[in-house]
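Input for the complex:
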Amino acid sequence: MIGIENIIFLVVAAVGIGLFVWQIRKIRKNVLMGRDTVLADNPSERLSKVLLVAFGQQKMFKRMLPAVLHLFVYVGFLVINIEVIEILIDGVFGTHRILGFAGVLYSGLMFINEILAALVIVACAVFLWRRNVTKVPRLANGVEMRAWPKLDANIILVVEIVLMLALFVFNISDLKLAQLRGTHIAGAYPISSLFVNALGSDPETLYMAGRIGWWFHILGILAFMNYLPSSKHFHIIMAFPNVYYSKLLPKGKFTTNPAITHEIKAMLDPSYQPPAPEVDAEGNMVIQRFGAKDVEDLAWKQLMDAYTCTECGRCTSVCPANITGKLLSPRKIVMDTRDRMEEKGEHPAIFAPNHYKELGVERVHVTEENTLLRGYITPEELWACTTCNACVESCPVNIDQLSTIMDLRRYLVLEESAAPASLNAMFTNIENNGAPWAFSPADRFNWAEELYMPSKN
Amino acid sequence: MAEMAASGEEPEILFWVGCAGAFDDRYKRVTRAFVQILEHVGVKYAVLGTEESCTGDPAKRAGNEFLFQMQAITNIEVMNAYNVKKIVTACPHCFNTIKNEYPDLGGNYKVIHHSTFLQQLINEGKVHVKGGEAFQGRRITYHDSCYLGRANNIYEAPREVLAALDADLVEMKRSRANGLCCGAGGAQMFKEPEPGRKDINIERTEEALATLGTAGNSVIATACPFCMVMMNDGVKNKDQEENVQVFDIAELVAQAEGLSK
Ligand code: SF4
Ligand code: SF4
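Predicted:
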């Protein structure tokens, strides 16, 4: 029974999926602007992290209410996708509820589906409330929370509600039609059967409502898929690879730069042979930049972080610098990285509304320089960080905000010698006295004399 | 260390004193308390004395990777020459750097923070903190050091040490993995804070004071020299020196054991 509707469907689906693949390739390209790092050790530990943190939502549960609501939306999304498979098959082959043969299993699936769909609606409504009415501070405040991030969040919540409603319209019309015809349809529909008369009893209208519900659903999904790469909701895909590639080492271990090690070893021991300098494809020496000034100086994982950020602000809300009113906001660092990457990358997604650099008074005064450092992130923000790792700990999708902050700091110090004066004084003290304070190394043992003095007297 | 090496002896542990432990007047008392404990239990230990130099932690966190590696490589050469195997330190910053960052540069040691070390001594019965009247009924709250806690997952050792005292241990709202930084890490110790509403150590001290209540004679326990400075400053800023004292866990153990007042 393949008709014109099915052919239209096929074309639409192919365009939708093609567009999505095209966008993903652009994002991949953007991420690969970053430095190479190998992060593939310990696959079993990485997989178990993915299970716990990404599938298991482990870190979400630091805050109960949003965690439970988010769980509804997340499980709803996963389960309802099973029905999407059916919708796709039905769409292509002109069948109707093709999986209905599964009997009890199908009934169970439909039953759970409807319950979850209802919970998703409830959760999204509460989320809208929290964002727009009670204005949870971490969602509402912050320089980085400009018009687009706020609109983006609201769009997705409303769309999700509408999609769920479409699902119900589709089910209700099916149910009512079956009732009118005196037939039985496969599946159990606890919610729709409550509203079975909501759409009247004109078969023509019901049929149309069913088709509209069906088309709406599938078009909605295709549109949603293509909207994702421009939105923070891209995290529903990126969370998985991002958690897989997250840091397994202790949070306190910062990266070591081997180029510097070679340099120092050669300085201390003239007979030391550093390895041959890296060359690029044309045989030119690759000039090492110490630290990061722009996105291509960051590692690809740090750029992937930027595409994974859900803009939830959990990091910023636990950041001691931010809590006490300093300019630093770890979420802003991550969002800036994404904005800059999409500005610089030759291949932005379909539309690139992420840039929050809007007209108006900026609280963070960036320069005209066209780089991540200074053009987006100011030294003042960077110097406020205590490297406490609270942001890293709090992030539900294992983003390492601190590593980016550190790389930018390193650039300030190693390439520009632009540390605050007091830090330069500290450096000098370490160089000259082996301590960050201006004490003589000869006095290092004085505490012991003071200790034994009383017994000697 | 040099003396021991000269007489052909090898210590069981190297006590890494750290710059604060050597130079900060308040924190020198912690160094002495810890040494008294070491002497008391009769561990064969040594210190590097004037051969010790800054681990490079503040340089590294401030972004000066070059200076950090200079320090690290020099320290590693000294320690490797003495065949050091096991290091104990009271400073979480030294602990973190030597444990996590020195191996990349050729320094491989078993590194223990003094909180873990003290916990072991108590478990082994070598230190009996119980029975003293010193802490009965006093309220103590423990402030987590970021470099011990989040950076290295050590949350329980210092708490178990405190639990061994007969004190009334109370937790702040932000504790363990959710603990709030004292404001000194990442080389903040060596510069003025960036402009903001208030300083981080004040925010944290306010939280500690609210937790301890107004009973008086209570203690903020720390396990890090930087935390100690910051909390002390905070307590002074709030004019609470009469009611609240800041002690390192080593000092508390030494007091309970009657090794110092
Ligand atoms: S590590 Fe830096 S950015 Fe992250 S929470 Fe701590 S102070 Fe804030
Ligand atoms: S970095 Fe992580 S915690 Fe911070 S806003 Fe993004 S997703 Fe949330």
